Amino acid sequence: WIAKPTEKVMATGSHDRMKKAFVAEMKAENIKKFLYNFTRLPHLAGTDENLHLAQQIQTQWEIFGLDLVQLTHYDVLLSYPDKANPNYISIIDERGNEIFNTSLFEPPPPGYETVRNVVPPYSAFSAQGLPEGELVYVNYGRTEDFFKLEREMGINCTGKIVIVRYGKIFRGNKVKNAELAGAKGVILYSDPADYCTPGVDPYPKGWNLPGGGAQRGNVLNLNGAGDPLTPGYPAKEYTYRYDEASGVGLPKIPVHPIGYHDADELLRKVRMHIYSNNKVTRIYNVIGTIKGAMESDRYVILGGHRDSWVFGGIDPQSGAAVVHEIVRSFGKLKKEGWRPRRTVIFASWDAEEFGLLGSTEWAEENAKILQARGVAYINADSSVEGNYTLRIDCTPLMYGLVYKLTKEIPSPDEGFEGKSLYESWYEKNPSTEYKDLPRINKLGSGNDFEVFFQRLGIASGRARYSRNWKVEKYSSYPVYHSIYETYEIVEKFYDPTFKNHLTIAQVRGGLVFELADSVVLPFDCRDYAAALSNYAHIIYNLSQSHQSEVSKYSVTFDPLFSAVKNFTEAAIDFHRRLQQVDISNPIDVRSLNDQLMLLERAFIDPLGLPGRPFYRHIIFAPSSHNKYAGESFPGIYDAMFDIKSKADQHKAWEEVKRQISIAAFTVQAAAGTLKRVA
Amino acid sequence: WIAKPTEKVMATGSHDRMKKAFVAEMKAENIKKFLYNFTRLPHLAGTDENLHLAQQIQTQWEIFGLDLVQLTHYDVLLSYPDKANPNYISIIDERGNEIFNTSLFEPPPPGYETVRNVVPPYSAFSAQGLPEGELVYVNYGRTEDFFKLEREMGINCTGKIVIVRYGKIFRGNKVKNAELAGAKGVILYSDPADYCTPGVDPYPKGWNLPGGGAQRGNVLNLNGAGDPLTPGYPAKEYTYRYDEASGVGLPKIPVHPIGYHDADELLRKVRMHIYSNNKVTRIYNVIGTIKGAMESDRYVILGGHRDSWVFGGIDPQSGAAVVHEIVRSFGKLKKEGWRPRRTVIFASWDAEEFGLLGSTEWAEENAKILQARGVAYINADSSVEGNYTLRIDCTPLMYGLVYKLTKEIPSPDEGFEGKSLYESWYEKNPSTEYKDLPRINKLGSGNDFEVFFQRLGIASGRARYSRNWKVEKYSSYPVYHSIYETYEIVEKFYDPTFKNHLTIAQVRGGLVFELADSVVLPFDCRDYAAALSNYAHIIYNLSQSHQSEVSKYSVTFDPLFSAVKNFTEAAIDFHRRLQQVDISNPIDVRSLNDQLMLLERAFIDPLGLPGRPFYRHIIFAPSSHNKYAGESFPGIYDAMFDIKSKADQHKAWEEVKRQISIAAFTVQAAAGTLKRVA
How does pLDDT run across A361-377, given as a tens digit for each residue? Predict the structure, then answer.
């Protein structure tokens, strides 16, 4: 721990002393052991093995000392290959004879040859079918890729099978775009350009994806709905289920993923053979609790998923092992008689890989309680997706906390001995928007924080060790969702000493500790104000590429800028009052903390974003244009993006105006929540 | 005040002493003076006169001693007759000559002959037009009336002008039903059978409706949307406005109201002349605040409207005068150094008559704050609609409080000298559902509590002096919304000594006082449990008239009954814990109070009722089948009601099952909010 002298002086005894003890308790060696233990078998959602792991974690968290650890189950729609009828793709000749078939499984990595129940690569929730037809290459399958094909190259995808390379956008969006373009089948493949770093060997010699490896994954378009058959409600015994035809986000055409060796073979005419089945299946979350000493009705949640496509060496177990060590350390302190001020909830989610189902169903079941009592959600999927520097995605409310905390944590990086994590992070990835600060990203989706942040408006954040994005441009780490995600790839290549894992434990655990135990919540509304101002200028600048229409349709951003100004003033005034609060008056502290807790909630519009009822955050939404980012002012952004494709320009611009108005109102209302309460 | 010895012993000094002082301060004579003052001129929403009254009230509330009194304005769609082109209806002969015209105004009552700016009877938001055609009498214009006409009598309304008598359902629903039946115009009239009590003279000799009087009123179908052009958002300067074609709830055909003298004349063929205009108009609420001493971020709201169709002798000024006296009494106590524990907000709403617009826009603007901090809303429209006994509509959470309070208030009724209000109320209107208790009604709509209760889930209640419903079966008091609603009709017939007004001031004021100043919120969740159980049995029994379908489609109410049972157990356990709370621990008290405050919120489904996004309470909704009642389990009820009209019975019953599931989930989740917080 690196603490400046002034911070030491300001330390409030118990809190800082216990934080030190909490951090000192966590060990890299433990995380390593947990990772090893969690990755011996596949833990596919809905399987016995994953239920057994849930039960093991439940038992261990109880032993660690949590007050209560429960399994919560839901019966959700999952999708599995048919063991008797494997999925594959054939090349067919002019007579329809199959002259080549893609592989039915990935060659197992050394040591895992005899492991049973490895699910072969497949696209979960693919439709069944045996379409055959001409193959069209559609690049990444983005909107702009199909535009280019159709408008510039005159290539029509109707009735074709399209082959799409993974990357840039979420695979579910690729499939949706292909469906809209009229395709009757989709082949997803991992291109070496995206999934192999030059000069690096394929696994097991290096950490690149072997040619026989393929990326599993679901191809849904849930937009935050959770279980496709019970949108908006938890998938419990009493819940009404739609039939699959009315389900949310299910693709209507067959989809299958292949590796680059098979992709190289594919010729003009192919036949897909897809026999996967959708099946309502029981899943299990593990929910552990330490009751807060003073405000047991205020919750700080640390959650990450447990289910994996195969061994989950990185995704998710490098995260789950860190959560395990954080729970152990909290439990240790609790056994010694300490409790955090607020309640801490630890969650091991199931079926994240099938559409964030475990977390979403739990949040649906507990929505009222979470909206009333949820202080913050910290996400804990993969701890390492690279070994270069820290990566943080979080609400602007947490910027200050993240910066403060990372200044207290030693950097694990070579060449930064004696320096803080903040220093190495800043040097390796400085912000382009804020001078003299490390980069923090917007929250998008693709992980279990989604329902908490995008639907419920609970302040959220996530932390990982990541790669150098400026140099390594591939779309995720190469072996992502393949059989080669093993314990060994982490132990050999990603983090041999587990020092980066420990750093992530310190960051995630430190965030939880500060959020749960600080008297005044460590949120800064002024940083939200600065972010809003930044986003308002960005969206305004985007509009300026349509200057004549902006003028013709009287589009004005003035109300939005005015609202941001009001918000900024309210935030400054709020923190002025917060400085003066009488800490010995519990109701006054609670009242201000409630304003802080509920600020993120103020950005939720109950009516949701257009056509996306479960994405309700007006400032942030998952981007359908970029897998790796959230969008800011998504309502306005989408309305402006849609202008290109709309025949009725007047109507399209009216929608832009409507969205600006909603954003202005929301920011204005959020400012209102920060004002004096009476 | 009637207090039992034990209650005196239990009195917590200050609270009970101040309550006594608060009640003693209120005088019938003051209410009378305020009513006189408020009824000198018409105060139609959007007029200068109504702005002036807002300013007067603002000034007086400031003088009374409130901390802050502000005008809040909104620019909403209103509707007025065209002064140059009056609306009327003609009888036309076979050649199209107009041989009779309905009257253009009501004969003014004595003393008001020279008052200017009396708006003639009209149906606000009627479409413009001059339809002519055959006249069809459609009774009350209910769904069953049109069914009967079309199915049993073979009368088709397409292309006809329908004449409908007022009563039974909201006039907007009559117009919607007529539109759906294909009518091209609607004439509304007051039938003596509904608006004249036998043996009573028309005003001014008695309180019956004169033959030249007619009932004004809006004919919207807003379903809680507020301003038709800005549904879901406050109608502020920055708000995007839909065009009228996309507005919510606007009728597409001309509508006009007439009295029974004109109705008697109408013959087979008529022509309507409707020139009313819709116009975006500024309206003003008056919002006054007394800041709470301990929990200034908890709000108890007393609100009632100020705008009237003409003089508003009963509606709304008999209510506004009572609010004025309550404000004066609170202000008096405050000037002496006292403050309630929580913040009290007093509201004088504008444009209630045009669709609850003032209250709804204000609640839309402040939704986040109200959801987070709103403890209760007490509605204050007309204090007297009769002089027989008390009428209460409220959330089950308030049953106990209402019973306790009415036992402390002396009965104003003849023959009940020395007895409590509770006793006369119970004797005159006992509950049929709960033995040994007076009747309390469900909250429906038609008044300003709607947005607070049905959209936001804030515990709400209303109190009036009412007629004997068993004897007087007319649909509202006879002169309702006519020019004959004067100060004098109240002073001569309804409440000459203003003792009933004072009683209502004691009830409304007493509710506000107890809600704002009790350490533990005076809500009882066990009464909600009993109500839920009652409603579940009622809806189950309704289903039993379709026993074969219930069996065929496997409809089961078991999950609902099970959820109600869980809720009941949680409520009992909650109140057991509440008994044991350490009153000296402010956080523990606050935490339990938060559970009480948020219980009503737990019944809100963010997805809303089917097709009614702004009615979101799963237990209660305004009934479209009965103007004077709320519906319980409206989702299930509507789905069962719709079965008759659905061709696809399988689908119709699936919807019933879905609605039972949503109700079961909601009750179950509400039970969850009452459990131990960690």
Answer: 999 999 999 999 999 99
